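Fig. S4 source data, part A: sequence.
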Amino acid sequence: MHPIIALWSHPRSMSTATERVMRERGDLRCFHEPFMYLYYVGDSVKEMPHFEADDEHPTNYEDIRAMLLSAGGEGPVFFKDMSYYITQRMMADEAFARRLTNTFLIRDPAKSIVSFYRKDHGVLLEEIGLEAQWRHFEWLATLLGAHPPVMDATDIQADPAGMIRAWSSAVGIEFLPQSLEWDKPPPQEWRKVSGWHGEAMASDGIASGRPSSEDEESAVTLDSAPQLRRYYEHHLPFYKKLREHRLAPATP
């Protein structure tokens, strides 16, 4: 069996840019949020803006799970997804959780919440995602007897090579420096959600120490809508708990 590496993230956490690093490696079959189809299509929790569903993509837990396991039987796999899509189902499926190499990506909710609101004014408390990530992380740590690796988006921006090197070591794959510079066209499946990932699609790498163009926008703040400050206060403790376990950058 080949490794199936999961990056469990939350929306607007720089997860798509991190996924692009994995795609540039060329040695992993990559999936973009396969369980998004469970939450927004199969379960129809809400309508997701800027999303054009692929009619051929599986939409129930069992079929998405089978798709990933089948791919893992053929070669190494990487996928990034959101914990809130499947936390309850995952906790009832220990075999699948053990089959995965589980890792986590977090970002300061003061930034991720504002970024999400720019894209979707109807964002739900659950969709901020950090609470589900913490529940997922805590359960996995108990199940597996070790804390899964955690990356913070701020650390990746500050030292892309150091953080991806540390993450690669933690999951048991070789660090490939060329994966930080993107010269391939954006993947076709991103076009289904292009309204969310325009910057990652247009970029040629993760710029060390430089904020994204979105971060430089200031029209939206945590006080732009009544619920945003409440969402922030709710999720901040879970972000802090996860951040306690974050990886430090690795040197060559």
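Fig. S4 source data, part B ends here. The chain has a mean pLDDT of 89.
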